[in-house]
Specification:
Blueprint: E1 9-10, E2 19-30, E3 35-45, E4 57-60, E5 65-71, E6 74-75, E7 81-83, E8 87-90, E9 96-105, E10 115-119, E11 122-126, E12 146-155, E13 161-164, E14 167-173, E15 178-189, E16 196-199, E17 202-209, E18 215-222, H1 231-248, E19 256-262, E20 269-270, E21 275-279, H2 292-307, E22 316-317, H3 323-341, H4 344-363, E23 375-376, H5 385-418, E24 422-423, H6 425-436, H7 445-448, E25 454-462, E26 467-475, E27 490-497, E28 519-523, E29 527-532, E30 540-543, E31 552-554, H8 559-568, H9 572-595, H10 604-615, H11 621-628, H12 633-639, H13 645-662, H14 664-674, H15 684-700, H16 706-718, H17 722-733, H18 738-752, H19 756-768, H20 774-781, H21 792-805, H22 807-810, H23 816-831, H24 833-839, H25 841-844, H26 851-865, H27 872-882
Parallel strand pairs: 2-12, 18-19, 19-21, 22-24, 25-31
Antiparallel strand pairs: 1-23, 2-3, 3-9, 4-8, 5-6, 5-9, 7-8, 10-11, 11-16, 12-15, 13-16, 14-15, 17-18, 20-21, 25-26, 26-29, 27-28, 27-30
Bound molecules: tryptophan and zinc ion.
Length: 883
């Protein structure tokens, strides 16, 4: 058991800093066994804070060796300051002074990948959220913004490239083969946006002309072997820069913008000013090695980090409770960018699918927290789906309520009013209010109340008067620390459909003007009735179009209603939604049938909907693919009160088989039509065709004959792109054809052993496979030479994929899956606490399962809890899960 209880930090305790740091001058001397960090800080008393005497200066610092310190050039003796495990404090004697320090750190031993560390042969940094304090003593908080000048000194042969934020202003050579470069960032920034890179990298260069005709030097730095894989990231960057000008009026502000790809990285990427550092998985993309999904991810992450330059860097967060100010807004911005670049409806379907399977589960679990949390122990634990994805949904609702034009007025005001400041979510909402003359005080409950609201809608049809009423009831389940919730503002986008599937004109009783064929009802009360009049026949409502609010909607649709909507709703998103809901309904029914010991038969209506879809050549093939995809096991677990793991897995697999067998000839026909040899194209239309083709391949490989097996092997061998090759591999790995499967796996590993990102796919495909023996396979793969527990991508690809996406394998009844995960968490706790903590998520969901599994999962959590040297990261998640 740990001796020192980690401390909880509260939003309500926020206070301005006692001092500001106007200037930060850093010199890094990089060596193989240590680094020296020389800092010179220009400090000034915060005059806005009424203080009688000069308060002590308390700088954050962790795992640092202080070699020297001087105040206004006077060396400090040991009694002049105090150092403990988290800080350095001293008593200033004037309101303005300069502090110089030298610290010694060991980047080569930094396995937590936070602060300054080595990834392969290069030095790099990750400072968000609180990594800068592992580099030097500092006021490591986002409301302290400083102008940085950085000099990097290193061996020229091993580290020819030396980078930091801003513009290069000087460079030169030292004796002994060392060289240096100085960078100056003219924009004041918090320390979390600081970055440094030193390595042997090649440069891919391009340029961008801004809306005001400035030429920006665009640079992507990668290890030499990845030179050919940067084109897509560069194109995505230029498209992002143009889009931010066109949609938000935001121009880039430095003359140079750099991206560096590193292999060891805890997250996707980081928006450091002028020097974004990326997980190589979010930069590199070539058709031979990356799937269409990976291409889309690169585009989205490049855009996300670029957009942060305004939403995050120029206007930043006052404190870490405001994280969603930059993350929710920026996720919304990148989602809209991707929607504009690709299919808007498909993008929305993907995001909603992800949100409902994952964020809803977080909202229903022990780590549930508001979009703006009230407290945390370790801020790294709050880079969550709630802050990012639900935060983006909250911004999307604001966009819906303001309208596109009003929203733009609001963001213009926000950027203008707060440029160069560190602000709060309230400031963001205030700008939208002021620009539009709206009152969002009730709406702001979305920031403070956790949990997923439920929306129960019932209807009443009065044939005599032609009136149709919607009775809407909202509620929100209790979450940790919040037993009672007040009503939310819920924008409900909706339409009414006649028996032909046509939208009917909407006129609300009591309103003088009609609302057209689609409207947004703003729900504000716990219970509310909306009555439409002048209707010639009883309508079928199409509700929550485009998922206009992150709620769980319930309307008593019959299966026939859903069939109708799946075929006729003019709104593409709700068409998909009807198809999903029908499949969910069918599967939930089958789970009950299975538990009653009766035979499982697919509802003919679902088969007929699929049959219609397969014949629909006018519909975007990517949409068809989305609609043919059955809801995931994870989503079914989320929807269940107590999830029956075996039944869910069995039912879903059985239904897939039933569909495959019932629609064999239709699927084969459509697949043949799509399975034509064609040159590779990265166009959205080509991706859409591959998506449908490979979805069909998955179905056709169920109880496949020799011909189909041969076709699948042929696709695996002959594919001219990784999307097709990987889809064939997935189909083979999940098939009973042992020989073909082993041959494909061996061939794949042989061919791609030199490509870490491709090997990640190889690990994942096997980790996710639901056939028996999954845990043993994963354990064996941990011994594979390409696996490495210190590389987060590998951990995610193998262990994370198994625990999060292999329901039946992970939740083995004997608890061996839980034990395996706990052991890995314990190992990672010592190496990389952030990754260890994230890996704990599946165990925190123990309340969802039967009592035997609950007991087994809790036992593992308790075992972790008892660990000597438990990190605050893992401690917070485990202790809250057991509470
Ligand atoms: N700001 C980054 C983003 O969302 C998040 C991030 C990157 C991060 N690396 C991190 C957060 C490490 C915590 C720790 O774009
Ligand atoms: Zn971000």
């Amino acid at each position: 058991m740990r001796t020192e209880q980690p401390k909880t930090i509260y939003l309500k305790d926020y206070q301005q800093p006692d001092y500001w740091i106007d200037e930060t001058h850093l010199t890094f001397e990089l060596f193989e066994d240590h680094a020296l960090v020389h800092s010179r800080l220009a400090l000034r008393l915060n005059a806005d804070k009424p203080q009688k005497t000069l308060p002590p200066l308390v700088l954050d610092g962790q795992q640092l060796q202080l070699l020297s310190a001087a105040l206004d050039d006077q060396p400090l003796a040991e009694g002049d300051y105090r150092v403990d495990a988290h800080s350095l404090s001293l008593q200033p004697t004037s309101a303005q002074f300069e502090l110089a320090m030298t610290t010694r750190i060991e980047p080569q031993n930094n396995t937590a990948l936070e602060g300054l560390y080595k990834s392969g042969g290069m030095f790099c940094t990750q400072c968000e959220a609180e990594g800068f304090r592992k580099i030097t003593y500092y006021l490591d908080r986002p409301d302290v913004m400083s102008r940085f000048t950085t000099t990097v000194v290193a061996d020229k042969g091993d580290y020819p490239v030396l980078l930091s934020n801003g513009n290069p202003i000087a460079s030169g050579e030292h004796e002994g083969g060392r060289h240096w470069a100085t960078w100056e960032d003219p924009f004041p920034k918090p320390a979390y946006l600081f970055a440094l890179v030193a390595g042997d990298l090649v440069l891919i260069q391009d340029s961008f002309a801004t809306m005001n005709g400035r030429e920006i030097d665009l640079r992507i730095y990668v290890e030499p072997e990845n030179r050919e894989q940067c084109g897509h990231a560069m194109d995505s960057l230029k498209r992002s820069m143009r889009w931010d000008e066109e949609v938000y009026g935001r121009e880039y502000d430095l003359d140079i913008f750099m991206i560096v790809a590193v292999n060891d990285f805890n997250m996707g990427a980081m928006e450091n000013k002028g020097l974004n550092i990326f997980n190589s998985s979010c930069v590199l993309a070539h058709p031979d090695t990356a799937t269409d999904l990976a291409f889309q991810r690169v585009e989205a992450v490049v855009a996300h980090e670029y957009f942060h330059n305004w939403s995050g860097n120029r206007v930043t967060c006052r404190d870490w409770f405001q994280l969603s100010l930059k993350e929710g807004f920026t996720v919304f911005r990148d989602a809209e960018f991707s929607a504009d670049m690709n299919s808007r409806t498909v993008k929305r379907i993907e995001d909603v699918t992800f949100l409902r399977a994952n964020q809803f589960a977080e909202d229903a679990g022990p780590m549930a927290h508001p979009v703006r949390p009230d407290s945390f122990i370790e801020i790294s634990n709050f880079y969550t789906l709630t802050v990012y994805e639900k935060g983006a949904e909250v911004v999307r609702m604001l966009h819906t309520l303001c309208g596109a034009e009003g929203f733009r007025k609001g963001t213009d005001l926000y950027f203008e009013r707060h440029d160069g400041q560190a602000v709060t979510c309230d400031d963001f909402v205030k700008a939208l209010e002021d620009a539009n003359g709206l009152d969002f005080s009730q709406f702001k409950r979305w920031y403070s109340q956790a949990g997923t609201p439920r929306l129960e809608v019932h209807s009443h049809w009065d044939a005599a008067t032609g009136q149709f009423s919607l009775l809407c009831k909202q509620s929100c389940p209790p979450t940790p620390g919040q037993s009672e919730k007040l009503p939310f503002v819920i924008p409900l986008r909706m339409a009414l459909l006649d028996s032909e599937g046509q939208e009917m004109p909407l006129k609300l009783v009591g309103e003088s003007a009609a609302r057209g064929n689609e409207t947004v009802l703003a729900l504000t009360e716990a219970e509310q009735v909306f009555t439409f009049e002048g209707l010639a026949e009883e309508p079928l409502p199409s509700l929550l179009r485009g998922f206009s609010a992150p709620v769980k909607l319930n309307y008593p649709y019959s299966r026939d209603d859903r069939v109708f909507l799946a075929k006729h709703d003019p709104d593409g998103f709700n068409r998909w939604e009807a198809c999903q809901a029908l499949a969910v309904d069918v599967m939930q029914g089958l789970v009950d049938i299975h538990r009653a010991g009766r035979p499982l038969l697919a509802d003919q209506r679902l088969i007929e909907v699929y049959r219609t879809l397969l014949a629909d050549n006018a519909l975007d093939p990517a949409m068809v693919a989305e609609m043919l995809r059955l809801p995931s096991e994870a989503y079914l677990v989320e929807l269940a009160e107590v999830a029956d793991v075996e039944a869910i897995h069995l039912v879903r697999e059985t239904l897939r088989r039933e569909l495959a067998l019932a629609l064999r000839s239709e699927m084969l026909a459509r697949w043949r039509q799509l399975n034509v040899a064609e040159p590779y194209s990265a166009e959205a239309t080509a991706m859409a065709r591959r998506s449908l083709k490979n979805t069909l391949l998955g179905y056709l490989m169920i109880e496949a004959g020799d011909d189909m097996l041969a076709a699948c092997v042929r696709q695996f061998v002959e594919a001219n792109n990784m999307t097709d090759r990987q889809a064939a591999l997935v189909a083979l790995v999940n098939s009973p054809f042992e020989e073909a499967k082993q041959a494909a796996l061996a061939q794949f590993a042989e061919r791609w052993q030199g490509y870490p990102l491709v090997m990640d796919q190889w690990f994942s495909v096997q980790a996710i496979c639901g056939l028996s023996g999954a845990l043993e396979r994963v354990e064996a793969l941990m011994q594979h030479p390409a696996f490495n527990l210190r590389n987060p991508n590998k951990v995610r690809a193998l262990i994370g994929a198994f625990a999060n996406q292999n329901l039946i394998g992970f939740h083995r009844a004997d608890g061996a899956g839980y034990r395996f995960l706990a052991e890995r968490i314990i190992e990672l706790n010592a190496l990389n606490p952030q990754i260890a903590s994230r890996l704990t998520t599946p165990l925190t969901r123990w309340r969802k399962f039967d009592s035997a599994r609950q007991g087994l999962m809790r036992a593992e959590l308790e075992r972790i809890m008892a660990l000597e040297g438990l990190s605050p990261d893992v401690y917070e998640v485990v202790s809250k899960s057991l509470a």
